[in-house]
Amino acid sequence: MKKYLLAAGLFLATALLAFSQFGCASPQTTNTNTVSMATPEPTPNKAAIEAELIKIENDWPRIIKEHDAATVRRIEADDAVFVYPDGSLGDKAQDVKDMEAGSLSADSWEVLDLKVNVLDNDSAVVSGRNVVKGGKYKMPDGRTQDISGEYRWIDTYARRNGQWQVVAGAATPVPKGAAATPTPKASPSPGASPAVKPKPSPKATPAMKATPAMKATPAMKAPPPAKEAAPVRMEPIKPVPVPTKTKTP
């Protein structure tokens, strides 16, 4: 009997201990409405970005003069795409090849009107203008092309691994006399508008020329002149006697 009482006491004590453990445990609260807030990006330091990109662009005259292919490798992205002034496409490999071969040269290469548009911490767009004097480009066939003139261009930059690189660029030649955009002047009403060019007078078409069918045929030739008629002999006219009147006695 004592054995049964001892077993019952042990069972009761175990039950009380288990109840105390689960009862005292604090329930875990779950909040299903928790929204993870994205960390806002820091405001880009526009002044610092502008200064760095302007420094890169102003270094191009030296790069071209010294044929510095190493700097081109550093500042141009491997996947960069370019549109050259003649409309052809190019890439980093072509630019590096031209620098190493010394294909590009100029007596003077000015960088003007730089404008930086910072998009965010890692991207920006730079536009500007170049004035090239005595510019030469040596083509693969050995001929030399004169590239002197004025150009407008735009470069897109991306910062990768802390390094700003050109990922895309395009340039276009500026026609002579179109460097500065003049303020449009009011044209006098009686005068012709400069935008309307005079049209050339229409030229005569081949259909307007005389065709062979329009030439005189043999049937249209003038007949031969008639033979001269024999002269008519005129007989002299004899006078007719006129009777005279006599006086009557």
Query: What's the number of extended β-strand segments?
Result: 9
Determine the number of helices (DSSP H or I, runs of at least 4 residues).
5
CATH class of the domain at 46-173: Alpha Beta
Write down the overall geometry.
Answer: elongated
CATH topology of the domain at 46-173: Nuclear Transport Factor 2, Chain: A
Structural class: alpha+beta
Low-confidence sequence ranges = 181-223, 242-249
Kindly state the percentage of residues in helix: 10-25%
- H/E element sequence: HHHHEEHEEEEEEE
Most strands sheet: 6 strands, mixed
Kindly report the spatial arrangement of strands forming the biggest sheet: 2-1-9-8-5-4
Strand proportion, as a percent range, falls in 25-35%
Can you name the CATH architecture of the domain at 46-173? Roll
Q: What number is the mean pLDDT?
A: 74
Please give the alpha-carbon distance between the first and last residues: 235 Å
Rg over CA atoms, rounded to whole Å, is 54 Å
